[in-house]
Amino acid sequence: MSGRLLYDDHVHSHFSCDARDSLESLCDAAREQGLAGVTLTDHFDTEPSDPGYGWYDYDRILLEVERVRQQTGPGFSLLLGAEICFQTSFAPRIADLLRSCPLDFALGAVHYVRHEFIDPAYFGRHDLHRAYGAYFEAVEELVESGLFDSLAHLDMPKLHSTPVYGRFAPERFWEHIERILRLVIRKGMALELNTKGWRQLPAESYPGEAILRRYVELGGTRITIGSDTHDAAHLGYGIERAHALARRLGFTHLTRYVQRRPQLVPLTEGLDAGSASMRL
Ligand SMILES: [Zn+2]
Ligand SMILES: [Zn+2]
Predict the structure, then answer these.
(1) Relative to the alpha carbon of 157, which ligand is closest?
(2) pLDDT band per the 50, 70, 90 thresholds, residue 18
(3) 2 C-alpha to center of ligand 1: Å?
(4) Residue 254 half-sphere exposure toward CB, CA atoms < 13 A
(5) How far is the CA of 218 from the centre of ligand 1 (A)?
(6) Ligand 2 mean position to 70 CA, how many Å?
(7) How far is CA 103 from the centre of its chain?
(8) The pLDDT of residue 188 is above 70
(9) pLDDT at 276
(10) 108 CA distance to ligand 2 centroid (A)?
(11) Domain segments of the chain as ranges
(12) Residue partners of 112: CB distance under 8 A and separation at least 6
């Protein structure tokens, strides 16, 4: 197992309102698993009705990252990112944050569509086409904004649409999805391979394999990989499986962002998706 460069680059600590573990315990869990590093991506929530609104405290987070870095030493790569909740009307505020609070990694996410939170009730209020159509338009605006390094969990609403409409079928939305993927590539952004869906109802990564394959076919090469864990117990979940999947789809490297600049890391060889999934 030596020489593996496995990282978890989507991790929430108690600096997110919906997570509870300290950065120290998350880093301990990562090192116990032999991970080479993590990127902390606590929520920067922009929607005033969100419970996490006003929660993000860059100065405290930075102090804690610097303190834990001293403990972990140079052999472990602890990076400071944020998962930033995008809506077009909040773009100036986000740009302000990114100017005044230096980050390694800006991960852009759509959690709200026109101020409506995406949850099971959202799919109760809108039919499938309308619900996803509006969501994908919001994602396109995120990518178009040029503010972010990577696009978080592209088809994550399938977590909430599956109980209402059944399994998410990307084929029904190729026009939207391909436009987003082309734009990601044109903007030089990365697409996130988020492993959380493997332990949730969709039992697929976010995005699923068909979308990742299409991204490769269109010329996409940059992916970031993260578990989106909100506790130490799931730190690193599915990371080996994600490496195996990415290699199988034709990616050769993952991308990590250091001071907002992409760094290529070779994907770990010798893992097959089946055995990796059994291990994790
Ligand atoms: Zn998210
Ligand atoms: Zn997250």
Answers:
(1) 1
(2) very high
(3) 32
(4) 25
(5) 25
(6) 25
(7) 15
(8) yes
(9) 44
(10) 10
(11) 7-279
(12) 47, 50, 85, 87, 118, 138
